[in-house]
Structures are given as structure tokens and as C-alpha cells.
Amino acid sequence: MSDLQNISVSWDGDLAIVTVDRQEKMNALNAEVFAELAIAFDSLRHDDKLRGVIVTGAGNKAFVAGADIGELAKMDALSGVETSRTGQQVFRTIERFPKPVLAAVGGYSLGGGCELALACHIRIASENARFGLPEVGLGIIPGYGATVRLARVVGLGRAVEMALTGEMIDAEAALAMGLVTHVVPRDELMDRAKGILGKVTKNGPLAVQMVLESIYRGMDTSLEEATVFESKLFGLLASTEDVKEGMTAFLEKRKPDFKGR
Ligand code: COA
Asked: Does the CB atom of residue 243 touch ligand 1 within 6 A?
């Protein structure tokens, strides 16, 4: 991953920190950022030591201030579809990533930035964060999944109002509607992100993966099918060493030592 120019990937123990870094453009998403996110997540997927990912933006002003409007201004009908599909596929890769992905939003999270955060499994924000879908003010619609995901996260009424008005909301409003689960001072954002993922990564890694699989697959299907699928995953885990370790550790009053097997 040494060729990355617009994002960086660093490590903190078993957590990877993916930072969108185009500070001069408020970390706006252009085609190169999408290509590099795809490379980064593909590489991370094959890294056995990885336990979780934090996605963030460089600097204190923006998480990501949307798709790169300079690039969007050049699109025609066909390239518009292609642009939207490419972004959607990258964000779908993030959403279906087998390990927890947390968005640490430390500033503007607008348009595609809000959509990137929505594709992550957990979202937290700094006090100066602002969220919004300003696309309608540019004469376009959100094209990287927000018209679908936002309503699933905050409910139909709030999602429709945000997408139709294009107005920004502050971090406290985002917290109140469930768009984020924690709001902290800017200088505590990354520590809180690591702390939350630390609470996840102490658990059985296969169980964590199966929770994500069951919840996200379940969103796309009927209650009946989703609960049948949940039972299969529940049963599948019973055959793992981790289940024996987790239960034995409880009975022996010690911390489990999960191996991910
Ligand atoms: N695409 C391309 N460039 C962007 C951008 C975007 N989405 N968002 C910000 N930038 C650029 C600005 O054009 C400016 O570049 P310049 O210095 O070459 O002129 C630079 O980032 C700094 O932005 P600026 O607007 O000067 O900062 P600000 O603090 O006054 O305002 C925002 C910050 C985020 C409120 C404002 O930049 C904004 O509204 N951005 C667009 C948000 C948007 O509509 N996103 C959805 C796109 S579909």
C-alpha cells in the first residue's frame, strides 16, 4: 500500500487507521480516493492480524466534505452512472467488511462524506462535526447510498428532511437522531474510537464477524429468512474453538483467550 497518495493507512496495535487526506480540498472524494480506498480495504481484508478499522479525515476541519465537485461538474449521463456505481461499490465493500469499521468524524461530513460514514458500522463524532446532504443544492441527489442507508439509520422522516433541505446538522443533533453514537471533544476523538473498537476486539473475533454478517444480511431480507440465517450462524459458531474457550473461561472465572478458530 506504499503508493497511496490521497489516503494513508497506519496501525495502532491490531487496528488499522484509514485517513482520507486531501486537506486542501476538505478531503473531498475524487476517483483516486475511491480507487485507493478499494486497494486499502482489499489489502486489509487479507491481513490476519487486523481486528478493526477506523476511517477518518486528515486535519481538524473535515472528515470528508463530499464528492469532489470539480470532478462532478464534468460528468455526463453515462459517466454519472459510472461515478455513482463505483462509489457505491467501494462503500458496499466497507459495509460488508468482515471486521468492524468505525467512522471517526472530526469535522464536516457532507454529501459523500456522510455516505462514507453511513457505510461504516459505527459512527462517532467530535463536537465540531457537521453532517448534511447538500446535493440537492447542486441539482443532484446523493449517489453513494445515502438515499437508502440514511433512513435505515435515523428513520424515514429525518432522512427525508435532511436529503430534501440539504441543511447541515450539528453533532448533538446527529447524536439525538442516532446518526452517531458518541460526541466527544476533537482532541479525544481518536482515543474514543480506539476505546470503542477495543471493547469489540476483546470479544471472540468469529462471533464479531458473524454478528456483522447476520445484521447486514438480515437488513436485505425478510424477518423469517434473516432469523433462519441467524440460527445457522449461531450453530456454525458452536463448532469453533472460540466458543469452547469463551464458555470455559467464564466457568473458570478468567478472561478468554480467543484464537479466531
Ligand atoms: N469538492 C471539491 N472541493 C471542495 C469540496 C468538495 N466537495 N469541499 C470543499 N472544497 C474545497 C473548496 O473549493 C476550497 O478550495 P479552494 O481553496 O481551492 O477554493 C477548499 O476546499 C476549502 O473550502 P472552503 O469552502 O474555502 O472552506 P469553508 O470552511 O469556507 O467551507 C464547507 C467548508 C465544507 C462548508 C464548504 O467547502 C462546502 O460547502 N463544501 C462543499 C460541500 C458539498 O456540497 N458537498 C457535497 C458534494 S456532492
From this structure: no
Q: Rounded to the nearest whole angstrom, what is the distance from the C-alpha of residue 42 to the centroid of ligand 1?
A: 29
Between CA 207 and CA 192 the distance in angstroms is: 23
- The protein residue with its alpha carbon nearest to ligand 1, atom 15, reads 25
Domains for the chain: give ranges and CATH numbers.
7-201 (3.90.226.10), 205-251 (1.10.12.10)
Mean pLDDT of the chain: 97
Q: Is the CB of 146 under 6 A from ligand 1?
A: no
What confidence tier does 28 reach under pLDDT thresholds 50, 70, 90? Answer: very high
Cell of 137: 443544492
Q: Is the CB of 80 under 6 A from ligand 1?
A: no
pLDDT at 1 over 80: no
pLDDT at 2 over 80: no
pLDDT per residue as tens digits for the range 184-215? 999 999 999 999 999 999 999 999 999 999 99
Is 47 a residue whose pLDDT tops 90? yes
